[in-house]
Amino acid sequence: MSENHVTGKVIIVTGAAGGFGRLVCQKTASLGAHIVACDVNEADLNETIRLITAAGGKGVAVIADVTSRADMFKVVDHAIDGYSKIDVIVNNAGTMPLAFYEDHGEAADAWDRCIDINIKGVLNGITAVHDQMLKQGRGHVVNISSIYGNYPTAGAAVYGATKAAVIFLSESLRMESQGKIKVTT
């Protein structure tokens, strides 16, 4: 039988209103973690928390836009006020607009949003937890990338570039934190 390393951990999850973010919240809460779920979609975020608590788990919702540095610091403040620590952040929020360069006219707004969420959102999540994790002497940052970030693919230039940036941000954090912050990509 394997040891449960999740019980009692305080885990921030971005993009927690649905999809993979909701699944991470539910699974880790079922293992005994305290979830600080954040997203811009209030109704679906509240549903995530309802599902967690209905199953006997613990979680709170914080409405936050990952593209806002202030919002991400608000999420961290909420976690510290409620639990006095942050063990893990899962930078999950993301968007995947696939479009060819020739479609730039129609794709421009979606590309801008992709860059803001997929790069700035991850950077904001990292910087929001950084000082607290160093102060604690430990922490774990999980950044969601994609195989699209490993090599160019037609129709996925912008999305792939943002996911390559996630890999770069992750590796840089790993180097700079000198083992005090674990990093998983």
Largest sheet: number of strands, sense, barrel closure: 6 strands, parallel
Radius of gyration: 16 Å
H/I helix tally:
5
Number of strands: 6
- Beta-strand content estimate: 15-25%
Tell me, briefly, the overall form.
Answer: globular
The average pLDDT value, as a whole number, equals 97
Run of helices and strands: EHEHEHEHEHE
What share of the residues lie within helices?
Answer: 40-55%
Describe the strand arrangement of the main beta sheet, using strand numbers: 3-2-1-4-5-6
* C-alpha termini separation: 26 Å
- Output the structural class: alpha/beta
Characterization of this structure:
- The chain is globular, with a radius of gyration of 16 Å.
- The chain is built from five helices and six strands; from the N terminus they run E-H-E-H-E-H-E-H-E-H-E.
- The protein is α/β, with parallel strands linked by helices.
- Helix 3 packs parallel to helix 4.
- It has a six-stranded parallel beta sheet with strand order 3-2-1-4-5-6, with helices on both faces.
- It has helices at 19-30, 42-54, 69-83, 104-136, 157-177; strands spanning 10-14, 34-39, 58-63, 88-91, 140-143, 182-184.
- Helices cover 51% and strands 15% of the residues.
- It starts with 9 loop residues before the first strand and ends with a strand.
- The mean pLDDT is 97.
Give structural attributes.
185 residues, alpha/beta, globular
Produce a short descriptive summary.
This protein is an alpha/beta fold and 185 residues long. Helix content is 51%, strand content 15%.
